[in-house]
Structure formats: structure tokens, C-alpha cells
């Protein structure tokens, strides 16, 4: 049956590559992926999936489903298709979406015989306000038996870890004054922001090594001869767990309050993007994916151990169902994600071929989960244990 899955994916290779190229050539920022969402949903309907658009009133999101008459596990594939500002698809989301859709189409060729349900979640804005966060909060993954996606990269890498993250905005308000004639009449909001940075820099040495705090000043005044009465900083606060991230956030908020007290400013804080939880890789499911790579000729020594690559909204999915996020080699040169070099190479034929290969590996892994009850139970047992531990 895996041969049938692979042959089905091969038979649609030209279509899948054309759509990937189209999305790559027409990059759209998060929650603006109108063209990509349209092409992807039309393709899924072409293959017989029932498509719901604008899930949770998110305009460019979708949920596509094919349910066999024969009962069985529910498999979820994640589709991402947002681009980066100025860089376009330098994270390879034009490949990710077609990896998942290709896998779903391949699996559909046998699902009526083996039983089960296939879902493709169209999840906009992974780079910022990732749609997986509200989808997970709404319980849309609670009945999923296995959730999968793969990420393009310059090497093979097992599904690993990610950082939990909060995105916090600090707004300081003071009082304007002439910076030369009457500076003593002013309350300097920019000084508060600078003090915030200094306090956070001092805090870093007291934090665990997996914590990350980094920020920018988005507004710091209008003219050098006016005491700034309004200044804004935005920070990402991250760590290897949600619990520790919450702890670090409390400390950062104290730094912010201290800066306000020292300068006489008032402070307002808010979350300017969604909070992401850490990825809890299901090792049993990950090992199953790796076995399919081995069977396809990828040597174990060519697959690196899982690493931390920042933050993913897939982490929020992983606390609701067993989840994996492996990295797949699509280019030969060692270029990192979010670079022009990676973007350009990820549009070449080699990357598109790797996209098709990855779709086969995802679909084969899903087939194993559906057809092996003992494997499915082991995946569930590990998931339950990991949730209890966290």
C-alpha cells in the first residue's frame, strides 16, 4: 500500500510543484495569504476533500477533511504558507504546504481500505500570530491521533525541541519639554526604555542557559531637542518550557515597572503577538518517521539529532495531541533559514523534488500509525506521560 501512496503522489507531482512555485513567486505576509489559501483549498477540493474556509473567522485559514466509511485514527497534516517581510519565502513555507497536501493526497489513495480520517489544517501567519494557537485553544486538535509536518532545511534533522515564547510590548508615557531650555520640566519616556534594556541585560546572568530575551525600540521620540514623552519597546521572552518562560516574564515585567518608577513614567504592557508553547516531540512517532527515511535510503548517520530552532506555534498543538516536526534536506549548501540564499535555492528543482519525497515520508508514517494498533497505543501512552510530566 505504501507503493500505492507513493505512486499517487508521483502522479500529481507536476501539479504540486506548480502550486509550490506559484506560492513562492507570490509571497504574502501572515493573515494576507489570499492567493495561497485559494490555490491550496481549490487543490484539496479537486482531490475530493471537504474544505471549510475561514476557520475561527481567520480569513486565510482552512480545514480540509476526508473521512473514510471505515473507522480509524485521525491524522492531521499542517500547512503553512505565510512569507517573511522583504525576504519572501526564506523559511520554505511554499514547500511546507505542499509537503502536507501531497502527503494527504497520497494517504487518501488507501484510506478507504485501511480506515481513518485525514485532516489538513491551513494555518496562516506562523511567523507572527500563528493560527495554530487559537485553533489549539479552541480544541480543534483534541481528537487528533497524530499531527505531522516537516520543515525544509539544509540537512536532515529529527523532530526536536522549540522554545516557549511571549511577545511583550512596553509603552512608556512621560511629559514633553524643550530639551535645552527646560529639560527639568520633562519626563523622559526614552530613558525608561533604555533603563528597561539595561535592567534586562543585568537580569540575563541570573537566568538558565536556555532562556532568551531580545528586543527592539519601535518608538523613541520625534526630535532630539524634545524630551520624548512616549517610547515603545517590544521583546520576545523565550525558554525551553512554558513554566520557566512564565517565570522569566514575571522578572522582565518587574524590570519594566522599575524603569517606570525610576523615571517617573507610566507603563502599559501588552502581548503584541500570540504566546507559543514549547514543542513536545512524540519520540515514538518521530522514530516511526525516521524508519521510513531509513527504508527510503537515508542513512541514520545522515540524520542529526533534534535541535532548538526558536519558537513554533506547533508547540501549542503538541500539548493537545502527539506531534512531530522533523527537518528535511532540500538544498545542498549550508544556508540557514530566513536568508536570501535559502529562499532562492528553495525554489530550485532539487528543493521541489525533496518536497515530493517528504510528502511520501509523511504519508508513509501516517500509514504506519493507522495500520499498527500497538504503535498507535505506544504513541498515545508516550503523549499522556509527557503531558502529565509537564
Automatic annotation (TrEMBL):
InterPro entries: Amidohydrolase, Bact_exopeptidase_dim_dom, Peptidase_M20, Peptidase_M20/M20A_hydrolases, Peptidase_M20_dimer, Xaa-Arg_dipeptidase. Residues 172-258 form the Peptidase M20 dimerisation domain. Belongs to the peptidase M20A family. This is Peptidase M20 domain-containing protein 2. One of its GO terms (cellular component) is cytoplasm. GO terms for biological process: folic acid catabolic process. It holds the Pfam family M20_dimer. CDD domains: M20_Acy1L2. It comes from Paenibacillus albiflavus. It comes from the Bacteria. GO terms for molecular function: dipeptidase activity; para-aminobenzoyl-glutamate hydrolase activity.
Amino acid at each position: 500500500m505504501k507503493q500505492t501512496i507513493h505512486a499517487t503522489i508521483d502522479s500529481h507531482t507536476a501539479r504540486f510543484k506548480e502550486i509550490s512555485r506559484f506560492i513562492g513567486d507570490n509571497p504574502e505576509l501572515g493573515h494576507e495569504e489570499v492567493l495561497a489559501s485559494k490555490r491550496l483549498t481549490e487543490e484539496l477540493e479537486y482531490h475530493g476533500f471537504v474544505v471549510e474556509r475561514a476557520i475561527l473567522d481567520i480569513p486565510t485559514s482552512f480545514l480540509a477533511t476526508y473521512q473514510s466509511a471505515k473507522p480509524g485514527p485521525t491524522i492531521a497534516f499542517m500547512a503553512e504558507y505565510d512569507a517573511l517581510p522583504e525576504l519572501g519565502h526564506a523559511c520554505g513555507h511554499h514547500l511546507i504546504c505542499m509537503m502536507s497536501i501531497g502527503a494527504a493526497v497520497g494517504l487518501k489513495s488507501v484510506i478507504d481500505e485501511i480506515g481513518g480520517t485525514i485532516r489538513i489544517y491551513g494555518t496562516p501567519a506562523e511567523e507572527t500570530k500563528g493560527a495554530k494557537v487559537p485553533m489549539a485553544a479552541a480544541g480543534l486538535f483534541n481528537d487528533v491521533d497524530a499531527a505531522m509536518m516537516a520543515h525544509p532545511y539544509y540537512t536532515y534533522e529529527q523532530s526536536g525541541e522549540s522554545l516557549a515564547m511571549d511577545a511583550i510590548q512596553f509603552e512608556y508615557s512621560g511629559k514633553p519639554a524643550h530639551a535645552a531650555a527646560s529639560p527639568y520640566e520633562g519626563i523622559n519616556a526614552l530613558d525608561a526604555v533604555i533603563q528597561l534594556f539595561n535592567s534586562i541585560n543585568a537580569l540575563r546572568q541570573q537566568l538558565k542557559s536556555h532562556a532568551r530575551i531580545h528586543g527592539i525600540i519601535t518608538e523613541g521620540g520625534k526630535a532630539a531637542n524634545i524630551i520624548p514623552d512616549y517610547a515603545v519597546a517590544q521583546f520576545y521572552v523565550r525558554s525551553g518550557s512554558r513554566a520557566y518562560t512564565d517565570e522569566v516574564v514575571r522578572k522582565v515585567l518587574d524590570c519594566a515597572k522599575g524603569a517606570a518608577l525610576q523615571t517617573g513614567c507610566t507603563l502599559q504592557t501588552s502581548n503584541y503577538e500570540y504566546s507559543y508553547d514549547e514543542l513536545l516531540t512524540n519520540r515514538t512517532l518521530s522514530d516511526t518517521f525516521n524508519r521510513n527515511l531509513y527504508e527510503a535510503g537515508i542513512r541514520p548517520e545522515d540524520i542529526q539529532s533534534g535541535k532548538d530552532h526558536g519558537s513554533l506555534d506547533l508547540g501549542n498543538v503538541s500539548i493537545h495531541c502527539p506531534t512531530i516536526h522533523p527537518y528535511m534536506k532540500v538544498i545542498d549548501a549550508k544556508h540557514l533559514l530566513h536568508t536570501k540564499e535559502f529562499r532562492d535555492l528553495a525554489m530550485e528543482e532539487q528543493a521541489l523534488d525533496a518536497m515530493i519525497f517528504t510528502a511520501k515520508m509523511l504519508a508513509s508514517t501516517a500509514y504506519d500509525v493507522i495500520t499498527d494498533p500497538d504503535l498507535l497505543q505506544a504513541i498515545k501512552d508516550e503523549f499522556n506521560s509527557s503531558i502529565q510530566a509537564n
